[in-house]
Amino acid sequence: MDIAELSDRILKADRRALARAITLVESARADHRAEADALLSQLAQSNRQALRVGLSGTPGVGKSTFIEAFGMMLIAQGLRVAVLAVDPSSARSGGSILGDKTRMERLSRERAAFIRPSPSQSHLGGVARRTRDAVALCEAAGFDVVLIETVGVGQSETVVSELSDLFLLLLAPAGGDELQGVKRGIMEIADLILVNKADGDLKATATRTCADYAGALRLLRKRVQDPEGFPKALTVSALEEQGLQQTWAEIQALAEWRRAQGHWDRNRAAQAQYWFVEEVRQALLSRLDTTWAKTRMAELSAQVATGQQTPQAAARDLLTGLGMPPG
Ligand code: GDP
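That is the input. Now the predicted structure with guanosine-5'-diphosphate docked in place:
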């Protein structure tokens, strides 16, 4: 199938064409990259926009249960939902803690849903860049909501927030008044904190935990992109499907406000610039990934260790060899 036909089918919401296109953008082959770039440029003209929602939480907090219940609710309202994953563990081990096939079984059977596991790439930057391409493909295919799931281990939230219009943080009820060691940086990117498992024996604890987080959020500096009352903490039960409608209402209210204020477009423009810089950075770094560069680097490194060359002279030597002499 050529690029024009693939593009056509994606615009007609053909899920097989979409899956194929995502495989293409994830490929490391130079000819595939060129095709992928052509496809993405062509599809960018469709100007379709989805609501991109980032979602993070530690393993076991209920991400897949939540996404399934939330996704089913959106589909029942006539919306089409794509779920993508950014799994930093796939970069390290080749294994995956997110997005394996047994998760979200009900949702995966829905025609209005599209679920794609994390791309396997050698580093988080690669995973994130390819996920960004997948988001663009899902938008062109006319999905209304794209959920981008990641596991809460720090750095991956930051890159997912660069892919998202808004960001949800899922937390578990915790005993006592101690905040769950959630890093300040993550609190600062969260637009909604959802304390999950607010059901049965855990309900009272969840309510208390939610109040603790609401208090902590009030102490954060107010962000320009937030209306009064945001960021906000809510209790939900993914299992009993409680609080999902309210979550959706809050998401919509926040999205509408940001659109009206111009923050939405400004955020997307800033993200496009971020990914432009990231593409350049990664392309430059990939120049170090060739056999020649690695061998030369090892030789020069040995010379630096024995004092045969200064670090500066060795760096100049390497860069000149790469055709990029320092100015
Ligand atoms: P993930 O690792 O974050 O994707 O978490 P899962 O969705 O796989 O859920 C982990 C465990 O928590 C499972 O045993 C779920 O049944 C349970 N769980 C998820 N959501 C809820 C909830 O709202 N209430 C309760 N009580 N358990 C939940």
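The mean pLDDT is 89.
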